[in-house]
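[audit] Reproducing an earlier prediction to check determinism. Same input, same settings, fresh worker. If the tokens differ from the archived copy the diff job will pick it up downstream; this log only records the rerun itself.
[audit] input (140 residues):
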Amino acid sequence: MKTKVTGLGGIFFKVKNPGKLGAWYEKHLGLPVNDWGGAVFDWRDARQPAKKGSTVWSPFAADTDHFGPGKQALMINYRVANLKKLLAQLKKAGVWVDPKSGESSDFGKFGWIRDNEGNRVELWEPPVVRRPAKRKAAKA
């Protein structure tokens, strides 16, 4: 396997009342729940400390279609370095790939597959963060 998962991007799960559950986790476990209902845990790469990342915890309404058809109550989001390559690799191996895969947003690129038990899995290529060029000191 050439292209692979690089980490855990998030965990998403269906609940009866996302707002109420988020408030419970914030009150009792101290999760930093945002206005949109989930929490983001920022971290740094152990091998490259300058490289930042995040993992999302997010409850979804029980009737969401984000997990695809069926009764799947949980969806894992995996970070990947190159979504296009990984999706091509998976297709070649006979893995079902959602035709909507490859969608881009301000949050990066997303793709969806099904594992061998039919669970919908989200793949995420984080956006490239461009650092401003360093300015050269002016000569006096």
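[audit] rerun output stored. Observation attached for the diff report: Strands lie at 5-15, 39-44, 52-61, 74-80, 103-105, 108-114, 120-125.
[audit] end
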